[in-house]
Amino acid sequence: MPLIQAENLTKVYGTGETAVTALDHVNVRVELGEFVAVMGPSGCGKSTLLHLLGGLDRPTDGSVSVDGQPLAKLSDDALSKLRRRKIGFVFQFFNLIPILSSIENAALPLLLDSVSPTRAKQKAADWLTKVGLGARLGNRPDQLSAGQQQRVAIARALITDPVLVLADEPTGNLDTKSSDEIAALLQQVAKEWGRSVLMVTHDPRIAAYAERIVLMRDGKIVEDKRNAKAEG
Amino acid sequence: MNLQLTLAARYLWGRKLRSFLTTLAIVIGVMVIMGTGIYMPTFMDAFNKSILSASGQTDVMITHKTGEAFSVSVLNRVKTVDGIRVIAGAIDRPVALPPNFYGRNSTVSGFAIVGVDPNVAPFLHDYQITQGRFLKQGDGNVAVISQRLADSLNVKLGDALRVPTTEGVVKLTIVGLMPGRALVGNEQVLITLSQAQKLLDMSGRINVIEANLTTTDKAQSEAIVNQIKAQLGDNYTLGGLTSGSEFLGAMQMAQVMFSMFGFFTLLMGGFIIFNTFRTIVAERRHDIGMLRAIGASRGTIIGLVLAEGLVQGVVGTTIGLALGYLFGMGFTGLAAPMMKQFMNMTISAVIVEPSLVVVSVALGVGVTLFAGLLPAFTASRVTPIEALRPSIGVTIQRVGRIGAIVGAVLIAIALVGLLSGSFELIALGGMLFLVGLVLVAPVLVKPFANAFGVLTALIFAREGTSELAQGNLTRQPGRAAITASATMIGLAIVVGIGGMMFSLSDTITGLFQKSLGSDYLLLPPSVAIWKGDIGAGQGLANKIRSINGVGAVSTLRYAQSYIQTATVKGAGETAIAVLGIDPVEYPKIASLEFQKGNQQDAFAALGRAERNAIVNGVLAAQANLKVGDLIPLSTPEGQQEYRIIAIGGDVLSMKINTVYVSQAVMREDFRKSEDIFYQINLAPGANPATVEQWLNAIVDDYPQFRLVVGREYLAEFRQQYDAIYGGFYFLLGILAFPSLIAILNTLAIGVIERTREIGMLRAIGATRRQVWRTIVAEALLLSALGTAFGILGGLYLSYVIVQGMSASGIFKMAYSFPLTGVLAATAVGLIFGVIAALFPARQASQMEIIKALRYE
């Protein structure tokens, strides 16, 4: 059974003459441990797809299941719980809380899940060390480079041991070197640590790190291909 | 909750200035409530210690409900009840002493003269005589006092103790000393009952019966008490002596007023916090969205915002409590000399009642949480997608039209209420008007900013800063309106109460001259709270009349009474001060301010041998009395009905339920012929110096009175009044202060929020000076808006209060336009605006461009 299964996924914004179809009957499957890159021009619906798969928004039509759970049937609280435990998010603008240190930012999902602060921080320290920030545990976001901030965000996404990591233009705000490092890290997340990663990007160089590339245009998937280079 | 509290604490610490300013609003609110709340119990304690007597140690203590003396025959009626082991009648009369009666260094401001039956009293009370002896039958001017009182007065066994009596000062030889009473301030001077009756003009009368029962069993005791009640009827109280409850009512009124101050201050605090939280939520949409995306539930987000409110509420309340205590101490400290001089009360300790602390904490924390509630729910509706969108900076807010329409309707209803002439509708209208203004405010921000923008454009010509300031204000009309509303409420109350006091001052000065405009006055230690005053018999008035050059002498006599009134809480007893006047002499010297009826007919009616009475406005309003009604007054001789012939009062009894009767009727019904207050006029052509010399000689024998020249007393009264005014204005100033914080807060938040924008302005060439001026101009516009609304609301409020007072029948007042108050409020409002702008303007102008552009 696939980890993500989306069928006839449709999202229409607005009504009547102003209605815009952002997603048009999209079907997509992602297996456990798979690294998928979603590419396409601006406004093609890739971010909308990511929002719907992550349970951040509700589709106009169609269905999404994550790890066998149909999202449509879940209440807001149940969706929150699912995001907390099974999905990790990485954002373009990192979205770290400026007043918290790296370790506190990374520990947030566990604290939201009522895990004891000591255990949460221990686990955050482990993950930060894994993503190469073992020496920056006490630094606040404004004391880190953009690349380092995104690593903290990745550690935060992984701390609950989710089955799925959704990344929305994770390198959109980074320089080339940092972008490569982050992309390589996401590749590691899938290959070594066994999580599924679905990454939205407009940069073909970054998409090349994924083992599967999905191309979108005008709200539809126009191509879905394996990336032999990455698989190898 | 742990996470929420941690985040709340970090956020607060991360924005220290804003946290400080917001918390300060709560600090001030709680401080005012706590500070003013200390005043009532502290003064009541002083009142009790100075004037009231403590209950005795006997099983049963019987007093007349009026507090007045009654016939000794009542004692015989009680004696017929079975189960009484020992019983005696006594006189227990509080004596307020004139200042410095026992010398400058004496701390004794009063005691009780207690006349007891020497044969029975030792069986009722455990009098432990440490030196000398107890009283015995046939003793004359001798007394037994406590060692503590002896120490305070620096007297010993065998010495003479001077005490004021209705026969003048009498010297009592101290024949016995006993240990001090447990309750400080209620010292007793024990004399024989017969001597007390003689010295206090209470022949054949007692004012308390004490009894010990044959049983200690509770049920049996209750049965005996019920038999006594059945024997005596409803006019007697079994328990302690009745207190000056008519004064208590006046004190409680003041307390309600002070509490209103605190409440309004907290209300402003609530506005400030609401405003801040709304901004916080807008600023943190990304953070909140991210938290939602990584799994935070709506409840968690609500908890996060409320936790921040809770931390601020708890910190602000704690500091507010501490400062409120200091404020209360300072306030009572300032009032103490005045209380000592005019009411002869000594304030010994500041009293903080636990309920006050509970209410202060509940209001302080409650208002903060309540103010955070709506922003918290708004925050919980932030979708996780917000986290994925790039920041779009400050949004432009739409104005809610529905609120404005509701506000306009409320203002219209308020105006209808004002025209109705009904006290209730006028009072309700006052509140509706303010609420209406708050609701209408957002719609008026833009036109107002445009209109005043013309003025600021003149000041900041050719720099474009005025337009920027206007734009900043109008793109967030909701926030500008809330800030202006906080300023408005503060200034509305300042102008409203200031205006009311201005009108009151004019009215009272006229009233004072009317009722106390005599050439000389003989004042007892405590004016208006007559209970503790020892007056003088008819002899003193006769002596004064015999002075060559004295034209007219009028006296006041005092008795306590009560009437049954129906209140919202059900039927109750309302304490009343009964003042006896001589209807022939009084009009020669003074007059009352009549609201219904006229002087000539009223005094003529009082002169007739009928039970006629004039009631004052407060009482008429409270008990719904009209001219022609019969008012049943409780007297020591039973209930008597008096016909109301007019409604009017004098300046001293303005706030106290008072009934004026003729002295002849008072003597008959209350058995009182003791004069407690004298007004004296010179005869035409008399030499004031000679008359004064004679008056002084006579008053030397009656040191409980102070001879005062009429015009000097007026000056003294004005001074006292001005001192009270001063206190009020101080409180009003405190009330205006949160509006300063409101403006400062909004500006500071605006600067924080627009950091990137300011960075951009600097990047494209704006000078530091231009940025500084933009913020100052914005502050001026904001404060002008608040000030204009505040003055408008304040004028309406003051008019409402004056009309309401007149409509209620409590007090006839003419409205005087508070021009000074309006000018002061305008100046204060605008100056506050500039002061509030200084810090944020400096912060904005000193920003580093690169850092500002990178600001998240």
Task: Explain what you see.
The complex is a heterodimer of chains A (about 230) and B (about 850). Chain A has helices spanning about 45-55, 75-85, 100-110, 115-130, 145-160, 175-190, 205, 230, and strands at about 5-15, 20-30, 35-40, 60-65, 70, 85-90, 165-170, 195-200, 210-215, 220-225. With about 230 residues, chain A is α/β, with parallel strands linked by helices. Chain A has a single domain, classed as 3-Layer(aba) Sandwich (Rossmann fold). In chain A, the strands form 2 sheets. Chain A has a 6-stranded mixed sheet. In chain A, strands 2-1-4-5 form a 4-stranded antiparallel sheet, with helices on one face. In chain A, a hairpin with a 2-residue loop joins strand 9 and strand 10. In chain A, helix 3 (about 100-110) packs parallel to helix 5 and helix 4 packs across helix 5 (about 145-160). Chain A is globular and about 50 Å long. Chain B has 4 domains: about 1-50 and about 245-390, no CATH class; about 55-240, no CATH class; about 445-520 and about 710-855, no CATH class; about 535-705, no CATH class. Helix content of chain B is about 55%, strand content about 15%. In chain B, strand 14 and strand 15 form a beta hairpin. Chain B is elongated and about 100 Å long. The interface between A and B is medium-sized, with 33 and 29 residues.
